[in-house]
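Run log, item B.
One chain of 252 residues. Sequence copied directly from the ordering sheet:
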Amino acid sequence: MHFGGIRAVDGASIRIAEGSITGLIGPNGAGKSTLFNVIAGHYRPTSGSVRLDGEDITGLSPHELFHKGLLRTFQTAHEFSTLTVRENLMMVPADQPGEALLNAWFRPAAVRAREEEVRARADAVIDFLEIPHVADEYAGNLSGGQKKLLELGRTMMVDAKIVFLDEVGAGVNRTLLNTIGDAILRLNRERGYTFCMIEHDMDFIGRLCDPVIVMAEGKVLAEGPADEVRANEAVIEAYLGRGLRNKPGAIA
């Protein structure tokens, strides 16, 4: 992905295995978010391709990818602030008959049945995430960590094949971060969700992710288990520079 003379993603090739939680790390400006934006349909790549289960999905729009089960969250949560947590979740499923005014007049039973089905799913998500105490709270009143939980919950309202999480831990206190991590692990182990996440908290990455992919200057620099990439001198150099590469605890 090039922006004029800037090669934000420069020949980076990654593979995310089904059923994995893959970490994507690298210094600021490494191209991580740009790569996410290409995969999730926000940018059309200058060259190359994106494939999902062997299907070429290059350049499809985010809403088209949504229907294929590819979802992406953002570093800054995108909630509907004047709707409750439950209502935010109920907004997610597509093709709800109540979205059409004529259906409200001529098919009220179908509208009501679908709404009850979606509400039940939302309540199940709320219980899974252990946030029933904020179910009827306006989303705009939530803490940063609670908003990140809500973002994760919205991915549970559809049958996601793969979810891309952009700095889910940014600005989140340690207690809520552990709750988010527990939810991600449960979704992966119990429901088979595949995740790829950008994150700077290496303890969080180390707890959840295998493998970990490292990007620098738009390229893939290293890949492997978290402990292995943390000890990789090329990775340390990319983060801190040549003169500091032997500093203890360089990537923490």
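Observations after the first pass:
- Residues 2-79+143-244 form a domain with the Rossmann fold fold (CATH 3.40.50.300).
- Strands lie at 2-3, 6-7, 21-25, 51-52, 55-56, 70-72, 162-166, 194-198, 212-216, 219-224.
Flagged for discussion on Thursday.
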